[in-house]
Amino acid sequence: QEADRLESQHQMLNIVFDDRLFFPPVTRVRSVLDCGYGAASWAVEVAEKDPSCTVVGVDISPHMKSDYMPENFIPQLDDINHAFTFDANSFDFVHSRLVGGGINRGRWPAYLRDIKKWSNNYLRSLDGVKDPRAPLQFHTLLTGAGFTDIETNMIPLPLCAWGTGRPDARQRRIGEANEGNTQELLNTLAIFPFTQRLGMSIDAVTDLVRRARHDAATAGLKPYFPLYRSEA
Q1: Comparing 198 with 134, which gets the higher pLDDT?
Q2: Around 46, how many Cα atoms within 13 Å sit in the side-chain half-sphere?
Q3: Pairing label, strands 224-231, 73-77
Q4: Contact between 152 and 228 (Cβ < 8 Å)
Q5: Sequence-ordered list of residues with C-beta below 8 angstroms from that of 154, at least 6 positions apart, any chain
Q6: Is residue 179 over pLDDT 80?
Q7: Can you give the three-state secondary structure of 12-45, one letter per residue?
Q8: What is the pLDDT of residues 11-29, one digit of tens each?
Q9: 81: which residues sit within 8 A by CB, 6+ positions away?
Q10: Is residue 55 a contact partner of residue 41, using CB atoms and an 8 Å limit?
């Protein structure tokens, strides 16, 4: 019943906004985050309009109907009142609407800072040269290449030692082994694309890497890298 109400609300807002899903003049949007996606009406519409765009939805109490899920929509269960686990500069576009009743009063300043942090510089710097999201298309690519019996899955690879207790012991051990590698890799990934493609100064990139390293090493954020495995 709540899912039906949210869908009706979405249709009403489409009339209000003249069917515009994006208001900023954005082009070549490849990754979108929808904070508090509810019934996922907006997120699914974005995903259906552009199958090459990956849409991630986050909600603590989603009301999405199970049959409304394009392959490029990725729902996640999380609380937007808490710091998210996404790396900085992860998305081309971040969407959030009608969440005033769900966000705690003291959370608003940090919530807006988080949205700003997640806006994407890294993918923009590689536009037309590299495609770091190619693994998301591996099932389609492998099928096109003639492979059959394809199996793909995503393994969350911890960037530092997070997790407590016996259930998280393995994740913590992986994070401990990966932390040093992650700290060095962030600098390696950033220098060329940010300086040569985006024209950023070395000082600006160094500061960005410093902040990214801090986030990657903050166990409370439970940072991870999505490691995609495919077999056929």
Answers
A1: 198
A2: 28
A3: unpaired
A4: yes
A5: 226, 227, 228, 229
A6: yes
A7: HHHHHCCCCCCCCCCCCCCEEEEECCCCCHHHHH
A8: 888 887 888 888 776 667 8
A9: 60, 102, 103, 104, 107, 111
A10: no
Instruction: Tell whether pTM > 0.70.
Output: no
Q: What angle do CA 137, 138, 140 make, to 5 degrees?
A: 70
Amino acid at 128: G
pLDDT tens digits for range 44-81: 999 999 999 999 999 887 777 656 678 899 888 888 88
Decide: 19 and 45 in contact? Cβ < 8 Å.
no
Nearest to 162 by CA among 216, 112, 111: 216
Mean pLDDT of the chain: 82
For residue 227, the surrounding DSSP H or E stretch is: strand 224-231
Give CA angle at 60 (211, 48), nearest 5°: 85
